[in-house]
Task: structure prediction
Amino acid sequence: MHTKFIVFAALVSVAVPLAAHAQLTATSTVKMPLRGEHIHRGTFPNPHAHIPAQCYVETSFGTQNACQYCHTDGVAEKGLGNNNPQAGGNPNVGNLQAEYAFGVFDYPHVIDSSVNPWENTLRPEVLARVAASLGVKAQEWDMQAYVRQDNWQAAFDKRARTTDWDTGVDSPMRLFPALAPADLPAQADGFVRSASQERGLFNDGQGWVTGWRALNFMPYGIFTPLAGSVSGVYVRLPAKFMQSTAGKFDLSTYEKNLDLVQRNAQDRLSGEKTYVGAASGIEIVRGQYPLGTEFAHPLHYVDVQADGTDRSISRFPGTRANRVKEIRWMYKQREWHPDEFGLALKEESAPVYANRTQGWIENGAGWLLGGWIEDKGGALRAQTPSELTQCVACHSGNVRQSDVGQNSVFTSGTGNTVDSTWAMARQFTGKLGWQEMNYLGYKASASAGAGETPGHLTTPEPLNRGKNVGEYRYFLDHVVGASLFGDMPASVETYLNRQISRANGYSADWPDLRTEVSKNNPQGVKAAQELRQRLMREFTAKGEYLQGKTIRPELFLPTRQAALEGARRYRQVVATQRYDFGKDVFPETPFTLRYFRTPETAYPHQNGTPYQIGEVITDRPVDTHAPNFTYGIGTTPTLIDEEKTEAQGGNFVPDYVPLLK
Result:
C-alpha cells in the first residue's frame, strides 16, 4: 500500500542579475514538485537496513567499545542539533552501548531486527559463491586499472545543465549534485572553481565560483584507507549567502558565512546571532544548518599511490582513487527543531518516504538524501529506496511520529550527529579545514613495495575536545581495532606484535588473538582481548602510536596489495548488485561476528539451540512475552559494563562528543 504525496508545493529561486550569471535563468523555471511514495520497509530485500552491520559485532566481553561512536548522550546534552541520546539518557531508547536492543516492526507480523541480515559481511564466502555462479572471475580483474578509471564524469554528464540543486527533470539524475568532477580538485582555498561559465555562479578573478567548497576533517573508523573506502566532502550554501548587503556576489561574504556555519556545527560561536551580507536576516539556529545547505560526498575506492601529485594516478589526494563507489548528497529542505520532540519513542513501523527511480529519500528530520552507486558494469545508477534506507540509518534524528500525522516517515539516526551530519563537526579549523579531504596529509612513497607501508602522514593528530587526548589514541584505547567492526588487519597485527613486547618495556608480549580464535577457546579469547586492551593503552600512553606528532602510517594505511584485494572483494558486491546485504566484505568472517561467550555470559539462538564456540552469530534472543511493550526487541547484553566508568578502568563512555580541540 503506497500513498503518493507532494513534498514541495513550490520551489523558490534566488533572483540574480542576468549580467552576473546568465545561466541561472535555468533555475527560475517552474519545476514539478518532487514526488515520493510511502514504502513499508517490510517490502525490502533487507528490511533492517536502518541498523548498520557494525551494530551486530560482539564487544569481546566489553573490551571493544565501538558503540559509543554512534550511541552517546553527549551531543544531545549539548543541544547540538540532536535529540536522540542513546547511552541511557532516553528511557524510551535505553542504553544501546549496554544491550543489543534492536527494535521491531510489523508487516503483517513482527519483523525481527535481531537476525543479522548483512550476509556479505557475515559470510563473505557466500558472496564469492554467488559471484562465481554468475560467471564472475574476480581473480582475473585488474583492480589497479579499475580503480583508476573515472566513472563520475559520465554520471554528471547525464544531469540536466543547471547549477540548481534540483534540475526539475524527471530522471534518475534529477538530484545528482551539481558538482562537476572536471572542476576538481578544489583550489588551495577549498573553493571549487570552473573554467566554464555555465557551471559557475560568479567570477572572482580566479575563475567561476561554483559555490562548492571542500572540507578536510578527521575521519571516523568507518571511511578510512584501512576500511577500504575514503571520502571527499563538499558544502554549498544558497546564493544569498554569497552576496553582500547590496546583493552583489562577494567571496569574502561567502567565506564569513561558511565560517559561521562551521563554528555553529562545532559549538564555537561567540555570540553571533545572524549570518552576514544578504543573509543578515537569517537567524543562526544552534546546531542547525541554514535552509538550502547542500553536501556532496563522493565515496572513493582506495588507491594508496594517490596523494594528488600525479593526475595519471588520481586527481584526488588522500588515497582517493579516481573511481567512486558512490556519490552521496544531502539537501536541507525544511526546518527541524529537535527540542520539539524531546525524548520521543520512534515508531519503528513508519514507512520510508522515497522516490523509486530518482535516487532520493527523506530522512524525517529536514533533509533530502540522495545516492548513486555502481551498476554491475561500474557506471553510477540511482539507488533504490531499500539501499537509501542505509543512509537514513546514520543521517537522521528522532521524530515523534504521532505528531507529524499522515505524512510521517521513518527516522533512524544515531546519537552522535549534528543536524544529521558527521563531517563538518570534525572539520579542521583554519586553512587546514578548507581544502580537499586528504586523510591527514597523506604522502605516498614512490619506493614502497606492494606489501609495505605505502607512505606517511603529515597532519598532526587532533585532540578530542572533551577528552583532551588524541582522537586516534582515544579510538585505539576503546576499540582496540582498526575500524568500528573491531577488526585488526594483518598488517596492523604484524606491526603491533613487533612493537609491543616485554623486550621493549611492556608488561607483556602482544598476544596472538588468532591462536585463541582458531582453538575455539572462549576463555582464551577473553583473556587475550583483555590483555590486548591493557597493552594498547600502554602503547598509546607511551606515545608510540605516533611518529612525531602524526599517526604512525602502519596503524592507518593498508599496503597496496591489501587495498587492491579489498577493492576486489567489494567489486563482487558490485558485480552481483547485492548492496542490500552489505558493502563491507572481509577476507573471512571477523572474529567479532563469531560466538566466543563463556558459560556465565552465554546466550542461545532465538529457537533455543545453543551456539557452538566459534560459530557465526546469525541471531540473538528477543523478548517473547507478547503483548509486552518490548515484545520482539533484543535482550542480549553487550557486556560493556555501564556501572564501571572510565576512571575505574571501564569501557562504558556515555558522553563521547566528536568535537575536536
Q: What stands out?
A: The longest helix spans residues 522-541.
